[in-house]
Amino acid sequence: MLSQQDNEVLTRVGPGTPMGELLRRYWTPALLSSEIPEPGGDPVRVRLLCENLVAFRDLNGRVGLIQENCPHRGASLFYGRNEGTVGAPGTPGPGICGLRCPYHGWQFDADGACIDMPSEPPTSTFKDRVRAKAYPTHESGGIVWTYMGPADTITPFRDFGTESLPREHQLATKLGSTCNWVQTMEGNVDTAHISWLHMFDAAEEVPDDGSDKPGYPSNAMTWKFWIHDRAPRLEVQDTWYGFRYAGLRTTPNEHTNVRITEYIFPYSTIIAAVPFNTRHLMVVPVDDHNCFRYTFNVSVDANPHGYGGGPLHDYSPFETPFTRQAGGITPRDYVEDNTYLIDRDVQRTETFSGIRDFVSQDLMVTESMGPVYDRSQERLGTIDKAIIRMRSLLIRAAKSLTAEGTTPPALAGPDHDFTRLRGADKILADGEDWRYLGTDDDPAVQEAEAFRRAEVADAADAPTVTQPAAGE
Questions:
Q1: Which of 28, 78, 8 is closest to 286 using CA atoms?
Q2: What confidence score (pLDDT) does residue 86 get?
Q3: Which fold has domain 167-457?
Q4: For residues 470 and 472, what is the distance between their CA atoms, to the nearest angstrom?
Q5: Measured distance CA(384)–CA(379) in Å, rounded
Q6: Interatomic CA distance for residues 244 and 437, integer angstroms
Q7: Which pLDDT does position 312 carry in this prediction?
Q8: Higher-confidence position of 329 and 360
Q9: What is the distance between the alpha carbons of residues 94 and 419, in angstroms, rounded to a whole number?
């Protein structure tokens, strides 16, 4: 358990709080690029780390993220006009454009500069001394990221693999949750709960398909492993970016299945999958009581069968009784107001939770703790090693930054390659060490990379097809 003081440090993210100041040192998802798709389109409200902001894409395509309240009298710039002039080809400069406040016409560009103040005399220079708070933005992987820390501590963008990802392979979603961000994060580093919260009775009856042996199990067999051994042993490996942790389970045939999840400081995870996984699940605090779950691709899927990461492992589809509610920013169907559509008869006879939607099972347990859970009341066990480690890293980093100005961990740097991080899942051979799984030394990773290179080469060698000119 934590002291109430440490629980406050861990969960409070507003300006001036230790955790809030720590998280502001990292490039953070602010919204999806798809929320502001068109130059000159409608602005969007953004609440992030307890600050109310407005995002917009100006007529030149630049993304601005500025304070919601106009510096003049506080009217919301969400209701402003996204207008201006577009730079013409062959003319210097990109043109003058930005959000114009509906109250008195003051206009602010993507950098927060007041570029027009038509309600003041033409000779006035007042606009040159007025700025809206604005944060730098960077688009990558279908997400608009922002840096909210001090200008003199800004770091390069942490590239998880999205910078070189072709547009057709970019896939990013976000899903809102009405609880503190740490509660959601703790579910992401808790491998034990899948044997309970996400389980269904028929998983125990899955027939042995021959993959319960050293190597890569089928999707169906992994569910059987989870229900067969519901008390996994946890091991944690510290890394420069956070840690990796392994959940070890004994299979029905007395082998050891390992699920390896990555924790990337401060708020990202890569969940285990067979044979490996690169997709991120990142939890971003809206404020102390709300958060968004972002998921995004960082690499081209090298598996033609669409499961895991290795091209030579054919994983047949496996039916479960669960649905998956769409991500994105659509309204949720499963919420506390309708008790997550729990079906008590299904809970008694079919699934452990009685909630049909897979992700909503997670939301139910984390939101039911209340907006900010008092961790001084909890009692932790051996299955909570990864949670304890994550909390320790976060609290120590926040306190060290506040008290001593210590540089936060896992920032972008020449020795920090964030594109080579992967979760993994495998049945171990006797004496096999799980720590190499998902790394560049893993044969499954090497196999997938060779497959990807071959596909790239084939695409480069393909003949170019030209369209005939009109009339031909």
A1: 28
A2: 75
A3: Naphthalene 1,2-dioxygenase Alpha Subunit; Chain A, domain 1 (3.90.380)
A4: 6
A5: 10
A6: 11
A7: 33
A8: 360
A9: 34
The 10 Å CB-count burial string (b at 16+, else e) for 133-147 is ebbbbeebbbbbbbb
Q: For 244, list phi and psi in degrees, rounded to 5.
A: -115, 145
> Identical fold at 28-146 and 167-457?
no
The residues, ordered by sequence, that sit 6+ positions from 87 with a Cβ below 8 Å of its Cβ are 60, 93, 94, 95
Query: Domain spanning 28-146: which CATH class is it, in words?
Result: mainly beta
Helix (H, G, I), strand (E, B) or coil at 7: helix
> What token pair was written down for 418?
């964030």
What values do phi and psi take at 339, rounded to 5? 45, 40
What is the rounded CA–CA span in Å between residue 10 and residue 181?
A: 10
- Give the strands of the sheet with 63-67, arranged side by side: 44-48, 51-57, 63-67
Strand order in the sheet with 137-140: 28-32, 143-146, 137-140
Tens-digit pLDDT profile for residues 58-96:
999 999 999 999 999 999 999 999 999 876 555 555 668
pLDDT at 98 over 50: yes
- pLDDT over 90 (residue 316): no
Q: How far apart are CA 360 and CA 339, in angstroms?
A: 11
Backbone dihedral angles phi then psi of residue 229, each to the nearest 5 degrees: -120, 100
Which 8-state DSSP code applies to residue 45? E
Residue with tokens 């009775």: 201
CB 87 within 8 A of CB 93: yes
- In the chain, where are the structural domains located? 28-146, 167-457
